[in-house]
């Protein structure tokens, strides 16, 4: 018992040293409450063309199927809130999380360091690092481990920092001290629901992914449906509307991760420059960025969709 308390303290101290905003830990087990929700969400086709969401249903709900003998899920938050935004108010918009280096690389590196620390400090620990690219319900685990509550926009919210942060996990086969969930502080507020340009938040806490601007501009490989013409609020990659209007994000503070700083030219690009962007400029601007996911052709498609005809 005493060693698990001490080990937990060591892990949280090291997580802070590595730059994580916060660290919470929960007991690895089957996510009973999430199972019917996920099943219903998939059944209603709210994942659209994201067919990968249908895969590994059991693994998404039980981390013990991902790591043999898993006993703990260590959830971590990493702030990405930028100190400044795009200069031209008319320019097509990029979601704040994609300003700098692709977060997968940045966080994976920190998680490897944390796992290495745990193995050195505690002993022969087996574990795996996850950054939203594997079948792990990271938001559910963040909530379970007390890092925040699930907001009506289906983002994890905290009173101290709002929601502009990434969520990642280490699943390990060692028992630790477990945190408890915090209470919901959304109250009667419906700011996110009211502001969503495409009405993707179909009911409190439920987002229809197939209606979300982030889905259309990143995940969807086909043409964007014409029904959504004029409803994108000028977003060309991702969308921050439901976070921007959230009252808790008044407390967001700028990150201090150098790798999340944008390419020097990114924020100064004008509307005209975006509309005339070449593949060469695209490659320079987004060399190590998450925006590469759309490819040049995808970003051009999104920019053209925003133009008025």
Tell me what the structure shows:
Helix content is 32%, strand content 13%. The protein has helices at residues 2-17, 34-43, 57-61, 103-122, 138-144, 191-195, 213-219, 241-244, 271-275, 279-285, 295-306; strands at residues 22-27, 72-79, 93-94, 127-130, 149-150, 156-157, 165-172, 201-203, 206-207, 235-237. The protein is built from eleven helices and ten strands. Strands 1-2-7-4 form a four-stranded antiparallel beta sheet, sandwiched between helices. Strands 3-10 form a two-stranded parallel ribbon. A hairpin with a 2-residue loop joins strand 8 and strand 9 (206-207). The model has no long low-confidence stretch (mean pLDDT 95). The chain has one domain (1-309). The chain has 309 residues and is an alpha+beta fold.
Strands, count: 10
Q: Mean pLDDT, as a whole number?
A: 95
Sheet with most strands: strand arrangement: 1-2-7-4
Using only CA atoms, what is the Rg? 20 Å
Number of helical stretches of at least 4 residues: 11
Q: Major sheet: size, sense and barrel closure?
A: 4 strands, antiparallel
What is the compact description of this entry?
With 309 residues, this protein is α+β, with helices and mostly antiparallel strands.
